[in-house]
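Journal club side-thread
Mid-discussion, someone asked how the predicted structure for our own chain would compare to the paper's figures. Pasting it here so we can look after the session.
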Amino acid sequence: MTDQPPSTRRRPFAALRASFLTGLVVVAPIGLTAYLIWTVAGWVDGWVLPMVPHELRPEHYIGVNLRGIGVLIFLLFTLIVGWLAKGFFGRALLRMGEAIVDRMPIVRSIYSGIKQIAETVFSQGEDKFDRACMIEYPRPGLQAIAFISSTAKGEIAAQGDADDPLISVFLPTTPNPTSGFLLFVPRSQITYLDMSVEDAAKLIISAGLVYPADKTKSPGTAPASLRAAR
């Protein structure tokens, strides 16, 4: 009796491996997303709920600590503050508070910096990081993904060429894109990408493992890694 070919013997195990990888691709994003939401909600609850009197907490009446109550309280509080800040009295109180902060040397610097960052990040009227690009970094011949910030202005712009203005770009680090470098690059040395800022951020956070989906691929096509395992 002849033995079966090795490819025939390994086929059931290859099918099991492909099924496991397919299940992992489905389960891992859902599980990690749920875990992150649960963790962030717990962190916000731990920060907000100690400021709420015990008599006003839901567990005081139902006996169960509901995770996410701190998030709802924070959102409601932020909405109320934003609504008040748009009114006449809210703006007057805000100017009064900022006038007091301006008299405190160290606190003034910290508050001014945080306020400028918050206004830039959460601004609704200005473009920020509206396009992904590639630049040569850290030396010629190597490429890195960056985000377009704005055209350089003032003294910085004067250091560039009028025909090739300097563009301020943010070069994030991997896997933590919240830190990085502010670079001023001549426009001619920037390669603009068609991928969205969100796709570029995923590529950076995943250290090059998650590439933007190929829009030319048919919707029912399985990932290449899974097709190779079959």
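Post-session note: The CA atoms of residues 91 and 159 lie 39 Å apart.
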